[in-house]
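pls design
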């Protein structure tokens, strides 16, 4: 194998490794984004439930004072 072929092979290997690392980073970023989305949805659901509880408590207090 001559020097030009060796350099070409090494360049191909480096390119493949870079593509694999890039793909892995994208997968990790996607997983992080999905996790953040789920956390936000859960927090939103909890806030909704707390607001509903507060509204029910206020309604009960109002009805009791009538």
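designed seq:
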């Amino acid at each position: 194998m001559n020097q030009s072929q060796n350099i070409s092979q090494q360049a191909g290997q480096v390119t493949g490794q870079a593509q694999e690392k890039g793909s892995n980073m994208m997968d990790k970023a996607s997983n992080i984004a999905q996790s953040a989305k789920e956390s936000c949805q859960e927090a939103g659901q909890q806030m909704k439930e707390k607001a509903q509880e507060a509204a029910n408590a206020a309604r009960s207090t109002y009805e009791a004072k009538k």
